[in-house]
Amino acid sequence: MKKHIITAALIILSAGVSQAFDPHYYHSGEYVESIGNGLNEITTTGTATEQIESSPSPSIVSMDGKISEVPVKAITVEAMISDDIQTYNIPISYGFPLSLTGNKELLNLKLNLPFTKREFEDLEDSGLGDISFTANYLIRFTQLLMDSKLVIKAPTGEVEDADVPLGTGSTDVALYFNGTWYFEKYALKAGIGYAYNGNYDLMGTDIYHGDEYLLSAGGDYNINETMKAGALLSYSNRAEDEFKNPGGSSYAPGIITLDLTPSFTYLWKTYNAEFNASVSIPVYDSWNSDKGNDYSYDPDRSVKFNIGVSKPF
Is this prediction's pTM over 0.90? Predict the structure, then answer.
């Protein structure tokens, strides 16, 4: 029972609910001010949208944008590090060529298994996060590569019985469309996406996560045949969360963000391995509220680091 109360307090505080739940019931207003940012990061990390902007592996799409003409199987190990959160993903993928339109095409299927460790104040918990499945359909025209991506995230991360929530508690579905225009040494790309974030029941209250819209633009530069550097500017607009119980509804603000993500890719041909590194740098953020009230503290998001190695076979 103690764990249930602590977990509920974490989620309620992070959402800033003021009617159906009163965060001051759990902690003083001054304490809410001091911990709000950390709670917001913990309870919003792990959404489906975190995976939809990643570029295809060089084993699937070469440096100059050519799609593989043979099936590609790969296993990856990657670490995603930010304040109070460490997540280690093991994506397993299988891509195979298609012939539907007469152009070069490929369908890539990926299952992502995350192990996450989260800390909040003097609380800590770790375990399986939310598992996701991704399907990429790629088609190459003369200079243009179109990448359509579907991500389905399952609520496998523990929420109620964890000292710190390890998932969002909901089933989420995200769609993303990206176009990349290739030149001799560099490429320009832009994308648009939408995420339907589901709902779940927590101790008699239905929590409906706000949906999210995304826009992105950036480019890559081929340093040589084994190294590539790039950057992506990403805009996200997430709607409010709604909390429903027999006493009525209350709302917590969503968030609007703008991030700059520089990245680097290296192909180690001797061992047929790929190394990827990126850092997501917050450029702008603000609360997004319509029916509810904004938090009294600033979002103040932290920098996120991502490094991984992939082995095609």
Answer: no
